[in-house]
Amino acid sequence: MTREGDGAAISMLLAAVIGVAWTVIHIGAIFFWEWRPSTAAFAVVLVLVQAWLSTGLFIVAHDCMHGSFAPGRPRLNRVVGTLCLGAYAGLSYRALYPKHHAHHAAPGTDTDPDFNPAAPRHLGSWFLRFFLGYYTHAQIVRITVAAILYLLLGASLLNIVVFWAVPALLALGQLFLFGTYLPHRHGATPFADAHNARGNGLSPLASLATCFHFGTYHHEHHLSPATPWWRLPGMKRSSERRVDPGRG
Question: Which of 2, 8, 162, 178 is the most buried (most CB within 10 A)?
Fold first, then answer.
């Protein structure tokens, strides 16, 4: 198998793990969770894990947008991306695809849909612009239809809110803070190049926990959008070895 084929197989395996784990928690918690004082603390843990897995669903879809999930197989990328975004929060792959590529075409500029040129350091107004730019009436309709179907199948509204809506909103904050705001926020130190992106000093484990490596290695992602999320730390290490051959 070629290196590209190996990479696609690993991407698919990791996506399957994320997707299965998310689905098990989603169905199990929404349809079978029973609220008791003894289970309340564990519910918090489930919500946090599901928020992280929801972030993972978005990152898998993001790789699909760049064709790095299944190189040379655009239909598979589109199908998997559509399923991941729909499950995560009723988002439309077709709508997000051009917006994300517009972001890569001119990151951190007036034409970047993910950027806030009016206040490039202000967290609140940037988040509001980001939220309004991606969450649509059609999405709300899709989520409402799914929730009604869940209710008809016997789920409780409380479980739907706690185990689907709350994790999705937490994942939104996670994606925005670590994957958009911190990497592209203007600061005292200028950006290294026209990608207007920077990483952070988090360890690989913390990088995985915060945003599946798209915070710590955000600049590397802009340098090589076709590199899947799980390869970004290795890309960074290879770059450092080229700069300093004595390391490692």
Answer: 178
Q: What is the pLDDT of residues 139-194, one digit of tens each?
A: 999 999 999 999 999 999 999 999 999 999 999 999 999 999 999 999 888 999 99
Spatial separation of the C-alpha atoms in residues 205 and 191, rounded to whole Å: 25
Following DSSP, what letter does each residue of the chain receive, concatenated? --HHHHHHHHHHHHHHHHHHHHHHHHHHHHHH----TTTHHHHHHHHHHHHHHHHHHHHHHHHHHTT-SSTT-HHHHHHHHHHHHHHHHS--HHHHHHHHHHHHHSTTSTT-TT--TT-TT-HHHHHHHHHHHH--HHHHHHHHHHHHHHHHTT--HHHHIIIIIHHHHHHHHHHHIIIIIHHH---SSPPSSTT--------HHHHHHHHTTTTTTHHHHHH-TTS-GGGHHHHHHHHHHHH-TT--
Contact 72, 5 (CB under 8 A): no
CB 228 within 8 A of CB 68: yes
Residue 20 burial by Cβ neighbours in a 10 Å radius (0-12, 13-18, 19+): exposed
* pTM attached to this predicted model: 0.93
CA-angle at 154, arms to 148 and 156, nearest 5°: 75
Q: Is-contact 79 93, C-beta < 8 A?
A: no
